[in-house]
Amino acid sequence: MAHELTRRDLLGAMGVAAAGAVVSPSTAKAADAPKAKGLRILGICCSPRKGKTTAAALQVCLEAARKVDPGIETELIELAGMNIPVFDPAAPADKETDFQKLAPKLTDPKVAGIIIGTPVYFSGMTSLCKAFLDHCMVFRKGNFALRNKVAGVVAVGGVRNGGQELAIESVQAALMCQEMILVGDGRPSAHTGATVLNNGKDDISGDDFGLASARNLGARVAEVALLTAGAGK
Description:
Elements: H1 7-13, H2 25-32, E1 40-45, H3 53-68, E2 73-78, H4 98-107, E3 111-119, H5 127-135, H6 137-141, E4 150-157, H7 164-176, E5 181-182, E6 194-197, H8 208-228
Parallel strand pairs: 1-2, 1-3, 3-4, 4-5, 4-6
């Protein structure tokens, strides 16, 4: 038949040059070369306690992000000890806070992804996290400076079902108002975000599932950040 699809046609349609094709060392090297040079992913730790389990969970996320592409740069920012008061829209515009110093980092064009980390307090985010997100109102008033940056959320709770997903969803709702691109933890867990367990001794090292979801989240943020930056597949 004139329209019969030959094996050669099929391979061509699939983009296969030849069955059993061998990738040359130079091609493999090019494929492994950094595609994301200068692309940055920030981890924002909203725990009032510096260097504790939420920071540790974010470090796991950021480490996984770096493994996606050697060109990705990461930075952990801890809000603990910073002057980020409850947001007051009537406050004088020149009232200085640490958020004003932080804003340029968040809006830097090189920052393609932001991962927010919060402990779980009564099934929600911390007051410090809420204050931080409320201060982000300034980005909406301008040109939506966080628009199309990739966002992920990790929550650390004192028990396995301690409100982590509720806390994640409340943070996501605020980030959605910034026109950010929200992602959850990737495969195989693939849910709303990273849900991590603090065993009560400020230790997350024994939470295999939670750590896996944190790694999945970091990798997923990096993958989508690469795509939005035009460096991914």
